[in-house]
Amino acid sequence: MNLYTRTGDKGKTSIIGARVDKDSQRVETYGTIDELNSFIGKAMTELDPAIFKDILEDLEAMQNELFDCGGDLANVMKERHYKMTDGPIEIMEKRIDVLMDEPPLLERFILPGGSPAAATLHIARTITRRAERQMVTLLKESEEGDVPLVVQRYLNRLSDYLFAAARVVNARLNVPDTEYVRSAKVFKDGGRSKKAKE
User: Fold this and answer.
1) What is the pLDDT of residues 127-157, one digit of tens each?
2) SS3 of 37, please?
3) Structural domain boundaries in the chain
4) Quick check: pTM over 0.70?
């Protein structure tokens, strides 16, 4: 089997049920999800299993879920069965609540960084936000029912998880988060609220 097919040499690609331009909004969105998945994989290589077993398990599950998200977005058949459900979102929310109770209380915005793994998780978080914005554009361009809305909900929650995980990584490694020096006190409850980030 050849890795290359030459079928995309003229700027078209196959999705499930159609051929589309490679720069279509749908391809752009699931391509960004693929980019996000790669950065999560990079973060995993930077995490010590002896310290971060729980987070590594979370991230591996999320990598599989992101594949599901991408596959669902690539499916434009008239009759389609989506893999993603709200189940992983509910699990993620419980994990966010657990993780947010671990690091020091947060009053101000923090700068992305700290340990290498936390910095990579922050990169993944910002890519998640980009994918979410692209989802909004895709939904505007698509007919109702053509895009699985659960993917947008999943991405929104994933960015929160990655923020929480980055803070926990720094905390367990005794690397302090660096506050944004001109930030007002924006977290009234120390960043514990489920709605601390939208």
Assistant:
1) 999 999 999 999 999 887 789 999 999 999 9
2) helix
3) 12-75+84-172
4) yes
